[in-house]
Design a protein that fits this description.
The protein has 11 helices and 14 strands. The protein is α+β, with helices and mostly antiparallel strands. The protein folds into 3 domains: 3-44, no CATH class; 51-153, Uridine Diphospho-n-acetylenolpyruvylglucosamine Reductase, domain 3, CATH 3.30.465.10; 161-265, Enolase-like, domain 1. Helix 2 (30-35) links the parallel strand 2 and strand 3 (42-46).
């Protein structure tokens, strides 16, 4: 039998966490596991309204851990993330799926996490300890603890951020892969390139080869070709029921080229 425990604050839920407990955020993945008989016997949920808050401060937007994809789509300050949130499941999923929950979604899910990785977002743990970069959290997410909020840098130029999802079923199928790129430019040249892939490893991963090919360059046909050729360097695409490792490696550069070409033309 599965029981649900409700707490008014995240701190109280953190104290109640134990070896047999699972935190229940939006529930899009946890409840599926419950229905399949594979979830833990104790589910912990929190009613603190702060977990649904969205606050903009300068170039940073703070998202409470319980902010949903629908909340993202309804907030004008998050327009740069609308294209990402819109591609997470259908309306019912978007009404429940949370930004923090997406960081812990197992392959092949986690498209929103790939976008946060490319943007250089940081996660704030329960207790307001030191913020951790999403990249660091993804490397060790089994020991990340409960997340209170996520700080997302807002691109100064909306054209500097792009996202592309590749799926076999449109518009809400599971990803063959997803790509997010943040390419700030100074005097026309890319400074601080960040490119991230989803469904190309056990968690979303940055693409170091593509980033090196783009850094310091104009976003033109030549730099795009070099980035596409290096797209899968350092990645470890899996084989699953959606696609094989071979197929993901074959198409990753093609879709990165398409995304970068779109960003260069905007």
């Amino acid at each position: 039998m599965t029981t649900v425990e409700t707490y008014p604050t995240l701190a109280e839920a953190a104290r109640a966490m134990g070896g047999d407990a699972v935190y229940l955020g939006g529930g899009t993945l946890v409840m599926r596991a419950v229905n399949e008989g594979g979830a833990a016997p104790r589910l912990l949920r929190v009613t603190d309204p702060a977990l649904r808050e969205i606050r903009a401060s300068g170039d940073t937007i703070r998202l409470g851990a319980g902010v949903t994809m629908a909340d993202v789509l309804a907030h004008r300050d998050l327009a740069f993330l609308h294209a990402v949130a819109r591609l997470v499941g259908g309306p019912q999923v978007r009404n429940m799926a949370t930004v923090a929950g997406n960081l812990f979604a197992a392959h092949p899910y986690g498209d929103f996490a790939a976008a946060l990785l490319a943007l250089g977002a940081r996660a704030l743990p329960e207790g307001q300890g030191s913020a951790r970069g999403v990249e660091e959290l993804l490397r060790d997410r089994d020991r990340a603890g409960l997340i209170a909020a996520i700080e997302v840098p807002r691109p100064r130029d909306p054209r500097a951020f792009g996202f592309r999802k590749v799926s076999r079923v449109k518009p809400k199928g599971v990803s063959v892969l997803s790509i997010a790129a943040c390419l700030p430019r100074e005097s026309g040249r890319i400074r601080g390139a960040r490119v991230a892939f989803g469904a190309m490893g056990p968690t979303p991963l940055r693409a170091p080869g593509a980033e090196r090919a783009l850094e310091g360059q104009n976003l033109d046909a030549e730099s795009i070709d070099r980035a596409a050729a290096a797209a899968t360097e350092g990645l470890s695409p899996p084989t699953d029921e959606i696609a094989t490792e071979w197929y993901r490696r074959e198409v990753a550069g093609v879709h990165l080229r398409r995304l970068l070409t779109e960003m260069g033309a905007s």
